[in-house]
Design brief:
- By secondary structure, the chain is an alpha/beta fold.
- The protein has a single domain, classed as Rossmann fold (3-Layer(aba) Sandwich), CATH 3.40.50.
- It contains 7 helices and 7 strands, in the order βαβαβαβαβαβααβ.
- Strand 5, helix 5 and strand 6 form a beta-alpha-beta unit.
- It starts with a strand and ends in a 7-residue tail after the last strand.
Length: 245
């Protein structure tokens, strides 16, 4: 990835942070975004290469526009886009979900990815190359109990991935998704923080442990680089075998 410009959203922790650090290790210039400058600064300190931080709320169109404009003005056109930022504010029964929760989940989990792809992909198409990676979830492949809104947004993100891949492929742009299973991050701690919940979760997997963010990052490196030049429109599942059952 030497010489490539990469933009990674939601990179102040968890999977996004691991991806940003892996990209920097591979020689890319990486722009990361998140809502808090102090947490972004900690990632920059850990970087094995070039990482630059930008405060951005992905649920706000004006923030995303400013993020893309400032990145291209400072570094040039973006070669790799990783839509990782997500939220899960509504782990509730379907009949108690509200309009407000629905709108928030769509705004952050889905529309942010749409807006960034709309902003970044034209430059990739002009150059005839680029890689877009959307971080989905196995919840988008199989409904998550009391997690309809999260599952819905991730399922839609997978279909968006396929649609963009179909239309942008002839112009040299590859679009893929990664669907992690249970990865040890703050976003997923509802399922593993309690020892009983963790035991139950891993009992349903072939690999009897939680996944680590760095394991998802290695897949992202492959998809971002020429090592996957014949791969597009795919959703790569990394779930320890959870979806085998």
């Amino acid at each position: 990835m030497k010489g490539k410009i990469a933009l990674v959203t939601g990179a102040s922790r968890g999977i996004g942070k691991a991806i940003a650090l892996a990209f920097a290790r591979e020689g890319a210039k990486v722009v990361i975004c998140g809502r808090k400058q102090e947490t972004l600064a900690e990632v920059v300190k850990e970087a094995p290469g070039s990482i630059f931080a930008a405060v951005c709320h992905v649920g706000r169109a004006e923030d995303l526009q400013r993020l893309v404009e400032s990145t291209t003005a400072q570094f040039g056109l973006i070669d790799v886009l990783v839509n990782n930022a997500a939220t899960n504010i509504a782990q509730v029964p379907v009949l108690t979900a509200t309009d407000q929760q629905f709108d928030k989940m769509v705004e952050v989990n889905l529309k942010s990815a749409f807006r960034l792809m709309q902003a970044v992909a034209p430059g990739m198409c002009e150059r005839g190359s680029g890689s877009i990676i959307n971080i989905a979830s196995i919840a988008g492949l199989k409904p998550q109990y009391e997690g309809m809104l999260y599952s819905m947004t991730k399922a839609a993100l997978i279909m968006m991935t396929q649609s963009y891949a179909l239309e942008l492929g002839p112009m040299g742009v590859r679009v893929n998704a990664i669907a992690p299973g249970l990865i040890k991050t703050i976003l997923s701690e509802y399922y593993w923080k309690d020892p009983a919940a963790e035991t139950l979760a891993i009992s349903q997997q072939a690999v009897k442990r939680l996944g680590e963010p760095e394991e998802i990052a290695e897949i992202a490196v492959m998809l971002a680089s020429g090592r996957s030049s014949y791969v597009t429109g795919q959703t790569i599942v990394a779930d320890g075998g959870r979806t085998l059952q």
